[in-house]
Amino acid sequence: MKLWDILATCLLLLSSVSTRPLFHKLQPSKRAVVRSESPALDPIIDSQPETSNPKQASMEEQYDLTGLYPEQFEDVMDFIEATLGRLRRSSDVEPQMKRDRVRQKAAANTEKSGGRGRGERKRSRGRARSRDDRVKGQGRGCLLKEIHLNVTDLDLGYRTKEELIFRYCSGPCHDAETNYDKILNNLTHNKKLDKDTPSRTCCRPIAFDDDISFLDDSLEYHTLKKHSAKKCACV
C-alpha cells in the first residue's frame, strides 16, 4: 500500500504540472515581436474585428508552453525515479528486518523452552529425592504419623462432632541407643536391676501442634493443649 500511495502522489504531481497555466514564464522577446509586428499590418486587416487576435495569441502561447513542458517533465520524472529507488531499497531492507525478527523470536522461544525443561528436570529430581527420603525414613525407626479422628474418639470426656488430625510418633529407636541404653537393657533382661528401672529409649514427640478449640454438644468451648505431635525423636 505504501508503494501505491507514493505512485498516486507522483501521478497527481505530473497531471497538475501538465495542466497548470504557465503564462508567467512566457518569454518577453516573443511578446515584443508580436507587438512590433502588429502596427505594420494592412489597414484592411486592422479593420477586422479583434476577436481573432486573442485566439492567435493563445495559440502562440500554447506553442510556447509546449517548449517548456520537457523541463518540467524531466523534473517530475527525476522525482519519480528517486522515489522508486528509495522504495526498492526499503523493500529490500524490510524482508531482511522481518527475517531478523523471526530469528530473534525463535531464539527467545528456544531459550524459554530450554528454561522450562531445566526447571521441570530440577523439580522431577527434587520429587525423586523426596520420595527416596520418605522410603529411607520408613526404615529409620522413629517417624511422625497421622490419623483422622473425632474429638470424642480421644476419650477425654468430650462429646462433640468436631474432628481433627491426630499426629503421633511411632517406630523403634535401635539406631539411637547408646551404650548406656544397651547396658540398661542387658541388666534388666538378666534381672540384675529392680523393676522400677527407667524404660528404654523410645520414640516421643519433641514438639507439639498448636492448640485447638472446639464446641461440644452442650455449647461449651474447650481447648486442647499439646494434644498432637509435631516433631518426633528417640528420647
What does this structure look like?
- This protein has 235 residues and is of the alpha+beta class.
- It has a domain at 139-234: Cystine Knot Cytokines, subunit B.
- The chain has 5 helices and 6 strands.
- The chain has helices at 2-19, 28-37, 43-47, 52-138, 179-189; strands at 143-150, 163-170, 203-208, 212-215, 221-224, 229-234.
- Strands 1-2 form a two-stranded antiparallel sheet. Strands 3-6 form a two-stranded antiparallel ribbon.
- A hairpin with a 5-residue loop joins strand 4 and strand 5.
- The longest helix is centred in the middle third of the chain and has 87 residues, at 52-138.
- The radius of gyration is 55 Å and the shape is elongated.
- Mean pLDDT is 70; it is low at 21-52, 62-68 and 132-139.
- Its main location: secreted.
- It is found in: Secreted.
- Glycans are attached at residues 150, 186.
- Residues 20-87 form a propeptide.
- One of its GO terms (molecular function) is MAP kinase kinase kinase activity.
Main sheet specs: 2 strands, antiparallel
Give the oligomeric state.
single chain
CATH architect. name of the domain at 139-234: Ribbon
CATH fold name of the domain at 139-234, please? Answer: Cystine Knot Cytokines, subunit B
**Beta-strand content estimate:** 15-25%
| Class by SSE composition | alpha+beta
Mean model confidence by pLDDT: 70
- Rg value: 55 Å
- The CATH superfamily name of the domain at 139-234 is Cystine-knot cytokines
Instruction: State the strand order across the main sheet.
Output: 1-2
Q: Calculate the terminal CA-CA distance, rounded to whole Å.
A: 85 Å
Shape: elongated
Low-confidence residue ranges:
21-52, 62-68, 132-139
GO biological process, one term: protein-containing complex assembly
Propeptide: 20-87
Family: Belongs to the TGF-beta family. GDNF subfamily.
Subcellular location: Secreted
